[in-house]
Amino acid sequence: MKLILLGAPGAGKGTQAEKICEKLSIPAISTGNIIREALKNGTQMGLKAKSFIDAGQLVPDEVVIGIIKDRLAQNDCANGFILDGFPRTIPQAEALDEMGVEIDKVIDIEVPDEKITDRMSGRRVCKECGASYHLLYKKPEKEGVCNLCGGELVQRKDDHPDTVLDRLKVYHEQTEPLKDFYAKKGKLRIVEGQEKVEDTTAATFRALED
Ligand code: AMP
Prior knowledge:
This protein is an alpha/beta fold and 210 residues long. The protein has 9 helices and 8 strands. It has helices spanning 13-24, 31-40, 44-54, 61-72, 90-98, 113-121, 161-175, 177-184, 197-209, and strands at residues 2-7, 28-30, 81-84, 105-110, 123-126, 132-134, 153-154, 188-192. Bound molecules: adenosine monophosphate. Adenosine monophosphate binds at residues 9, 30-32, 35, 52-53, 57-59, 64, 85-88, 92, 158, 167.
């Protein structure tokens, strides 16, 4: 199955992508994680992306389209994949079409803006492996420490309140039009993000089946 997860930053796409990945045994591909990894490794692409990420802006389309082209060409994508955080603009969605990628479903996780700002303040990520946690909704077993690799948990620079407002603005202006784009193709399924992660996951799994 070839899936796209849509939703505002902090709506819980990454967590749901992990759940679907476990259930369907297909890779979850996060352009945000790929870019952060490149930044950590100091690659040219990472350096190019840094100023955009720090400002809460989108990285230019040609950069992320290149990332996705390379990633989807890898063997583990042969039986399907979940795209988390791509596409984020209409030209990115059109590029997927041009690549001949036939998306089965687009799951849009809806969370009101007021809740997003609350949620983002509690989000923490592992400095080493990028795994994501939340101080209230997805606590690590040991405070401040990653369950998976023991790395230190930190707040992402772009999760600070001012940058979150910029990211939400960018989301509404550039990413939200994708709902219409995929609704017209009959692919859009809306999931209301719930307080409890497991309730959102149950709704996401139901959306995969209808
Ligand atoms: P995320 O972890 O998905 O919230 O992504 C973090 C940041 O990476 C975003 O705020 C953008 O600056 C950049 N980014 C990730 N995916 C994309 C994309 N598809 N298009 C443009 N920029 C992206």
